[in-house]
Amino acid sequence: MSLLDGLINLDLTDTTEKIIAEYIWIDGSGLGLRSKARTLPGPVTDPAKLPKWNYDGSSTDQAPGDDSEVIVYPQAIFKDPFRRGNNILVMCDAYTPAGEPIPTNKRFNAAKIFSHPDVLAEEPWYGIEQEYTLLQKDVKWPIGWPVGGFPGPQGPYYCGVGADKAFGRDIVDAHYKACLYAGINISGINGEVMPGQWEFQVGPVVGISAGDQLWMARYILERITEIAGAVLSFDPKPVQGDWNGAGAHTNYSTKSMRNDGGLDVIKKAIEKLGSRHKEHISAYGKGNERRLTGRHETADINTFSWGVANRGASIRVGRDTEKAGKGYFEDRRPASNMDPYIVTSMIAETTILLKP
Questions:
Q1: CB neighbour class for 42 (10 Å; exposed up to 12, middle 13-18, buried from 19)
Q2: Backbone dihedral angles phi then psi of residue 140, each to the nearest 5 degrees
Q3: Which residues make Cβ contacts (< 8 Å) with residue 180, sequence separation at least 6?
Q4: CA gyration radius for the chain?
Q5: Beta pairing, strands 69-79 & 186-191
Q6: How far apart are the C-alpha atoms of 211 and 202, rounded to whole Å?
Q7: Is 0.85 topped by the overall pTM?
Q8: pLDDT (tens digit, 9 = 90+) per residue, 82-93?
Q9: Could you tell me if 55 and 25 are in contact, meaning their C-beta atoms sit under 8 angstroms apart?
Q10: CB 245 within 8 A of CB 291
Q11: What is 56-107 written as a DSSP string?
């Protein structure tokens, strides 16, 4: 082990009670993550006991240069798999110095929806399937692909095994374990249909925590690809042509859907989602029209549809749910670059709060 590695992995718990807290927030792009660290006098497990902090919003496209201070409010704490010990990762959202949420703070409105009494009573569960693509750093081309060329056609790569099929497994497994260490309810991983593309699943998670956990899982993945020298892409169609795109299928249920007679509740919820199809599509990620073409296991972006076990529909109901008469459904429309605060809260708002 080099001296640098030894210092990076230095265990501080025997020499000081002080810890390092990495504050993380979403920048003005709506997808990029930023972070900076500070020293705290001792371990903290409650985000309400963490100090608020500030950053230069003019450098993140979130404030003008002559009034650039943006304040971050700690919202969720995770164990830090990089520094380990008592050190923590802190998911934050952003406000003006006057305490108003800035326009790119999508968590604020999501939290209002999830705190509504009708939503709280239904205990909405989410399971989000986050697809992503690993790119070669210098050429921005999927890892495992010949530079300037293409691998063999899709078919053997989905859940594939072997040096000619599974590209980047070391990154994927490192991310899996790091998320479990952090306290994220990551429920699985798999290789996807396009080579160099992978998926991890977060859930089941209740309410606003689904957004917190998915964003933190993205941050950890970004850090691991940084270490590995790869580039992480959430583009919903990273390679044009006869290649699958990347989505963030969102599985969802409420207490009423999980109880006896839940299938009828699911059908009514799907009807509500259909009535707001355009509104949902407009909020489900940038560039999604390149992915939702009606091909490659997607529905056409302009047409709402649902079906049992149909991966070419907007909404898929599983065979187990149909058989049991209760359970959950999958919204297959969200793109890989969607904001989970927006998508999860919008689904809850439409299915629970929207009147028929």
A1: exposed
A2: 55, 45
A3: 186
A4: 21
A5: unpaired
A6: 10
A7: yes
A8: 999 999 999 999
A9: yes
A10: yes
A11: EGGGTTSS-GGG-EEEEEEEEEEE-TTT-TT-EEEEEEEE-TTSPBPTT-HH
